[in-house]
Amino acid sequence: MSNSPHDRRFRLNSASDIAVSFEFFPPKNERMEEQLWSSIKRLEPLSPSFVSVTYGAGGSTRERTHATVSRIVKETSLKPAAHLTCVDASKEEVDEVIRAYWDAGVRHIVALRGDPAAGVGSQYSPHENGYQSTADLVASIKRIGDFEVSVSAYPERHPESRSWDVEIDVLKAKVDAGATRAITQFFFDNSDYFRYVERVQAAGINIPIIPGIVPVHSFKGIAGFARRTGASVPSWLARRFEGLDDDLRTRELVAAAVAAEQVLDLFDQGVDAFHFYTMNKADLVYAICHMLGLRHQEQPVKSTVAA
Ligand code: FAD
Fold first, then answer.
1. Of the candidates 52, 185, 44, 168, which has an alpha carbon nearest to the alpha carbon of residue 108?
2. Is 251 in the pocket of ligand 1 (CB under 6 A)?
3. Per-domain residue ranges of the chain
4. Active site residue 128
5. Would you say 112 and 82 are in contact if contact means Cβ atoms under 8 Å apart?
6. Could you list the pLDDT tens digit for every one of the 307 residues in the chain?
7. Does the Cβ of 87 fall within 6 Å of ligand 1?
8. What is the domain class of 5-291 according to CATH?
9. Quick one: 121 exposed, middle or buried, by C-beta within 10 A (0-12, 13-18, 19+)?
């Protein structure tokens, strides 16, 4: 019998051992709202473990994030996770948001520090009456309610990181405060992810480190985002998208191939949970999940009429 690294992939008959989650951002207008909800409805039958909704820089989408997760609770069978940052907010303000999520039926928060108002890379200083660190925020969330708490992780280190030791200490503090899952910043070189997981495990941290996968809808957009977040963009990736700026159809096919290649390679090496940065677009993510063996499952119909 062959011992090809692809054996795991070819034995993939059922998706029961694979967990996927999808990340969305809150819409700014009616057109974006329609796009978001059509994507949620398309991805819902894949039965993700959870879907998360981001929190705009400095809490700028506070109401829209709340409205989106509340609608997910009311109208779908999905389990929403609300992102929450503590930058530029007092403890009272943040605690109010946490309690509002609990009252809306949300039981999972992705707890983050957030970027300084002056932008990524500028000096971070906590609000004078605010949480000093993400670990403090995690502890407070756990005090307020029995939430599941996920946090961030950076396989290529956070742009502000001083050293790997500090990087791992920061993750450990978040786990000690109650986080039970970390979702990574996106990356394109899977060896960065595996090296990072080794470091985390060597430090005695045993929570799942879920790889964050970003389909490259726009190479220029992703390259700009990567520059700000400290993720590297390999030259082979740039080469794949070269000359396709005005060729949307080919770009989408290449993006699907690139993401599928990355996800299947992670899967071949034992990874069985994936978090997709959907950018509120469903088709590419749906196709990749299909390749992972996930299939449409009928969902229980939820009444939208208030009781
Ligand atoms: P932390 O994990 O607390 O810290 C980040 C890094 O800063 C550490 O890894 C370390 O290098 C350094 N650091 C922290 N504390 C110390 C210390 N005491 N001493 C020395 N170094 C330290 N942003 C949003 O605004 N809204 C979102 O919805 C959002 N969602 C995200 C989801 C994911 C999965 C990820 C990976 C990021 C997300 N971000 C979001 C971005 C995030 O807010 C920024 O990357 C921010 O700069 C750091 O927040 P954090 O929670 O990752 O910080």
1. 52
2. no
3. 5-291
4. no
5. no
6. 455 666 677 666 555 689 999 999 999 999 999 999 999 999 999 999 999 999 998 888 999 999 999 999 999 999 999 999 999 999 999 999 999 999 999 999 999 999 987 777 777 889 999 999 999 999 999 999 999 999 999 999 999 999 999 999 999 999 999 999 999 999 999 999 999 999 999 999 999 999 999 999 999 999 999 998 989 999 999 999 999 999 999 999 999 999 999 999 999 999 999 999 999 999 999 999 999 999 988 887 776 554 4
7. no
8. alpha beta
9. middle
